[in-house]
Structures are given as structure tokens and as C-alpha cells.
Amino acid sequence: MGGRGGALEARVEGFKSVGSATLRLAPLTLILGPPASGKSNLLEALEVLGFAVKTLIEAAAGEYPSQRDVGRLDDYVRAVRCSDLLSTFRGAKRSFRVALGGPQGGIAAAGSCESPRRLRLSVALRGAGGEVEVEVRALIGRSRSLRGLRGDVRELFGEEALPLLDFIRMFFESKESEESVAVKVRRGAHEGGGAPQVSRVWAPVPRLYGFDRMNVLYTLQHNLATARYPESYMEERGRNLGFILYSYDNVLREVQDVIDEVVEGIEVHPLADGGLAFFDGGRDVGPSSVSDTLLRAIYGVAAIASNKVSARYWEGRRLEGGGLSEATLHPIVMLEEPESHMHPWAFGGLARYLVDSASEGLVSLVVTTHSGSLADLIVGEALRGDPGLLGVYYFQRPPGGATRVYRVSVDRLYAEELMTLDELIRQPENVIERLVSEDIMVRV
Questions:
Q1: In this predicted model, what pLDDT tens digit does every residue of 152-197 receive, in sequence order?
Q2: How far is 30 from 15, CA to CA, in rounded Å?
């Protein structure tokens, strides 16, 4: 099962290194594989759907003040040009398709490049009342020309000229952001006149959280986590983390519980202005004095806990405009290598929290990891509780080729004592081939 929406299926075609893959998402889906195998590319493909939901649904319900405040697609997905999103393999189509859904509804998008910097997304939202199709056009890749002048300006005019250059750059980038998203409703759920409407839309909404990808350390160290939107969940870049912890006691409690399990004497206190205060043994310290492990734990736990809040917030929420009348959103929290730079001592608490959160059914979790130790801890927690919570996939990519995705039968892997996931990650290709031949790993 994939949370309250039932079983979820994700399909990706022609996105970066992923030529074609179909994954059945469990409440907790674990993705393993060597570097550059395409794990993050799959998460980014799903994040494109999340961006569409932000633009089409969340902004219409007040999560964001406006569509412009959602930001740009390349705030969440790595791309400098639109073509960076497309497969580069011989014979590949010059477009991509991503779909995610279940029995209650879903969302699908087909993307193509109108220009080097403009992506056209044809989005279909499916619900109990039918389907609505919407076009979204998004800019990708900010202008770098003014940024490139920075060194020349410093050399010619000195440091005092840089603030003026930064002001000019911010002005032009703000103009770009005003045009970063354009939305047009193409077809409603019913034939005939009037505004197209779909009643009771149910949509999974993927949200990609990566501490390093989103430069969260910089955000925390420079006290920039003070934004007040979105309202119901921590935004992927963590820019409203302080507001979320201040507004929702249960999120703060879950964060503090995990901190206490990792180390004693550290407390985080959210402030009314959105700032964060950290205390070590009762002494006020800045975020620069807090360990990487704790900051990463705070970010990861806040992502999951706040999305539980979001799941309740988005139960049958009324919308205004955009051709939609009501929406229920099911958060898909995607954690990219949450163990990175984290002390192994914290892995046990993280594994328990992931499994416990998945068992609640409010959110679905997708976790990529390079750590076999963390993967085995997660599997152990799931097998001791409900093995049905867990799905495991292994990604592999030959040099210059497309990503291959295999579903791993964890039950057989462990029951037959063949190897642990930690050992699986270290295996050479011939061992992987043997596991495939024995149907312990099945290509999807």
C-alpha cells in the first residue's frame, strides 16, 4: 500500500538517465545503487510533478501567496538548460513523461523544450470527477551574465561597487521570476461551456529533500529559514523551517525527540520571527556551533513531521480558480541520502523514525542511500514490525547507458541468508547478474 491513497505506481520515461522505469511505491521505498546510477534522477523526475502541484493547486489554496512565490523549477531540480532534463541517448525522444497515481487519482506530465530556457509541461490531474489538463510553462536557468561580471567589477571599481551590481542583478532576476511560470487550462472534466471543474481531485505530491542539494547548511547558518510559506509543510529548501517549528508543536516535539536520542543537552527553540535558537547545556549557541549530524537530523525529521501536518491540511481542501474545486493531496517525502555526513550513531534512531512514520499512513517515504548500514537497519525495523511497509529497488547504469531498475526481494535475500543490503551494495556486476537469474532481483 502507498498510504491513504492505496497502492501508488510511478512511471518515468526519457528523463535524464532514466529511459523507462516503473516502480510500485510502498509506504517506505528504499532505493540503493552505486553513484551515478540514476537514483537522484528518478527523484527529480517526480519532483517535476511536485512543482506542478505547487503551481496548480497549492498556490490556489493559499499555501503560497501566489504562483510566483513557488519559485522556479531549477530551484528544486538540477538543470541549467531545458535540455538537461531530457535523455541524451541515441534514439531517445526529445521529451519526457512522468506519472504517479493510484486508485483514487493521480498526476501525469509530459515535458518538452520550447526553447533552451523554457520547459512546456502538459499536466493531467485525475480525480473522482474526471480529469483536467493544464499547460505549465516554466523558465529554467537564470541569466549568468551579470554574475559573471562580479570579478571584473571588483578589480576595476573595488568592493564598494559590488552592492550596486547585486542590486541590479536582483532586479533582473525578480523580473525573470515574474515570468517563471505560466498556466493555462486546456480541458476540463466535462464537455460543454463554463469553467472546467473536477470534483474531489486526489493527487500524490512528491517533495524532494536533500540537505546538500538544497544548500540547507547555508540557510541555517545565515538565519534565512524565516519565510512564512508554505503554511502546512517545510519547503524543500528549508526556508520556512523556523516558522514550521514555531507553528506546530507536534513537529517540534518529533524533532526534539530525535535530537535527544542522538545527543543529550541540545535543544532547538523556534522564535516568533521565524528564527531558530540553539542551546547546548542551557547555553545559547549559534547554528554554526551545532554539529552537522544534528542539523541534518532536524531537517530530515522536520520534512517528514511537517508533511504529516500537510496530509491533514489537504484533506478535501477547497480551491479557488485554476479549473479545480477541491483537492486532497498525499505527500510523498523523498529523502536524498539522509545519512550523508551523519554519524553512524544516529542511524538507529533515523531508521526507527522512518519506519514508524511510514506505518502511520499519512505520508509515503522514498529514501535513496549509499549506506548499506542504514539500509539494513531500516529493513530490520520493518521486518520486526510490518514487512509490507517496505519496498526495495536497486539502480544500476552501464557506462554511457540508461539506468536499469531492479526490484529486490528482501524476504528471500534475508531468509536464504544470501547477503545483507550492505553486502549487496558492494557486490560486483557478476553477482548482481546471478541474483537477477534467480529472480531475487527483477528488472522493472
A1: 545 555 656 556 555 555 544 444 444 556 666 655 544 444 444 4
A2: 20
